[in-house]
Design goal:
294 residues, alpha+beta, 7-stranded mixed sheet, 5-stranded mixed sheet, 7 helices
Length: 294
């Protein structure tokens, strides 16, 4: 029997609000929290506690489904075709420890490795983004009525010089990926007479899930990212596509990215210009390639 997607969607919303209460009642300290890979890759006790609550709630209701969470992931775990909850308990942990309000819980659900349900909740702003495959994407603020995404009638995409671009440094601050990001960010921002794209601006929200939500809402035109994981993008991917957006690969030529591919280029919904602006962005990347292993 196929999973009841509405039932799963409603449970994810309930769990997201529970997580939001835990996040808002916590008092993280930027100087005392733990790290994973380096000082920019932060983990808190709240991350761990929220994931424990989420996995208990979801697996208690759906014990036959699979679960992949950021804090319980270990190398070698693979996303399968089975129904799978893909969870980031706190996306934007660095923001969280600094009390910067771009923080969310990202709750995704995939079937056949396809993002099928997405729930993203920012408790600081009380903004809830939701989507079910084939049923549209929505935003609810302060517990109010759901508003369909995008938030305004989408205009055609022209070129990068008219685009607001989401971009993140990530926690890797050396090596080939960092060097490519520095090059691409510089070229995107530079004046056209100096060979740049002169985009309207670059935005670093600090959360892949909230970047994808912003693109889905039509508040950003593009989001380019390498280095994040399936739990950062599964929910947002579903929301993006249901809002008319397009997900391409973060490296040139990749029109069929995977949830766990770790390289992404999201484009907002538009009546025209989506594929053209992807091609233009890929030209900015040039011969460089993001190199992240799944």
């Amino acid at each position: 029997m196929a999973p009841n997607l509405v039932e799963i969607h409603d449970l994810l919303i309930k769990v997201a609000h529970q997580a939001g209460q835990m996040i808002m009642s916590a008092t993280p300290n930027a100087n005392s929290e733990g790290t994973k890979k380096n000082s920019a890759d932060i983990v808190t006790e709240t991350d761990k506690a929220v994931e424990t609550m989420v996995s208990t709630e979801l697996m208690g209701k759906y014990p036959d489904f699979e679960f992949i969470g950021e804090e319980t992931y270990h190398p070698g775990m693979q996303l399968s075709d089975a129904p799978t909850f893909i969870v980031d308990p706190i996306d934007g942990t660095t923001n969280f420890v600094h009390s910067f309000p771009s923080v969310c819980i990202s709750l995704g659900f995939s079937i056949g490795k396809v993002p099928t349900v997405g729930v993203i909740y920012n408790p600081f702003l009380d903004e809830l983004y939701t989507a079910i495959k084939g049923q549209g994407a929505f935003l609810s603020r302060n517990g109010g009525e759901k508003v369909r995404l995008p938030l305004k009638n989408p205009e055609p995409l022209k070129d990068l010089s008219t685009a607001l671009v989401g971009a993140e440094w990530g926690s890797d601050r050396n090596g080939v990926n960092f060097d490519l990001k520095v090059k691409v960010f510089s070229k995107l921002a530079a004046a056209k007479e100096d060979g740049g794209s002169m985009v309207h601006s670059l935005r670093c929200i600090g959360s892949a899930a909230l970047n994808l939500s912003a693109v889905a809402a039509g508040q950003q035109d593009i989001f380019w990212e390498g280095g994040c994981w399936a739990w950062d993008v599964c929910a947002g991917w579903c929301i993006l596509v249901e809002a008319g957006g397009l997900m391409a690969g973060g490296n040139p030529g990749d029109w069929e990215p995977t949830i766990d591919g770790r390289k992404y280029l999201a484009v907002r919904g538009a009546p025209s210009g989506q594929k053209d602006i992807v091609e233009e962005f890929w030209k900015v990347i040039g011969d460089g390639r993001l190199e992240y292993s799944s």
